[in-house]
Amino acid sequence: MTQMKRLSIGILGSGKGSNCRAILERIRSGDLAAEARLVVSDVLDAPILDMAREFRVANTYLPPGRFRTRLEPEIEEQLVQTLRHAGVELVVLAGFMRVLHQPMLKAFPHRIINIHPSLLPKFPGLEAWKQALVAGETVTGCTVHYVDDRIDHGQILAQKEVKILPNESAESLHARIQVLEHELYPAVVAEFCKRYAEATQPDKGWSDN
Ligand code: GRF
Fold first, then answer.
1. How far apart are the C-alpha atoms of 54 and 25, rounded to whole Å?
2. Which tens digit of pLDDT belongs to each residue from 164-201?
3. Do the Cβ atoms of 42 and 122 come closer than 8 Å?
4. Which of 181, 182, 184, 188 to mutate to test the pocket of ligand 1 (most atoms within 8 A of CB)?
5. What is the CATH code of the structural domain delimited by 7-199?
6. 13 phi, psi to nearest 5 deg
7. How far is the CA of 119 from the centre of ligand 1 (A)?
8. Of 14, 15, 45, 114, whose Cβ has the fewest other Cβ atoms within 10 Å?
9. What residues are annotated to the active site?
């Protein structure tokens, strides 16, 4: 039996890593033909790094430098080298709280994806579920998109909707969106895996979008 060729992924996160867990669990259970090569965090004590250790995935802390919302350019170059060295082919942002710029975008064109807790282009930025509540929306959700150099911006790949309940609290809405995220993100990564496996001929490569 021919084995499906596995897509090497790198996961970047700054926080609790529940989306990372959802992806690692799907890999472990055998229904996601990916291999997690590396988890990187810009936060030394981020739970996502403990999670990587729990799943026995290589992991590293990347000291981000002196900026708050981005990496210093030399550090972003260092990140490119680290990911390349690990053989990463798809970069998966899972709660990574910094905007990426040229070094990463140039090194991984159409190979960096992000998940965001709103129906983009509505409500980019922080606490998007609260923004949806304040705006009086009746429906919100989550979006997976390609990453560009703007916050929560870039070509949309997939979305899932959730109805906002009457008098719903921010905590409840956030929790319900996260349940959807944990289904949507592995499903999108699975799509990339499928396309990657289909591109069997060396000269064919895998399509860009
Ligand atoms: C998610 O809600 C995601 O949409 C946003 O950051 C959060 C990360 O959560 N980009 P977790 O660390 O995966 O639990």
1. 11
2. 999 999 999 999 999 999 999 999 999 999 998 888 55
3. no
4. 181
5. 3.40.50.170
6. -155, 160
7. 14
8. 45
9. 116
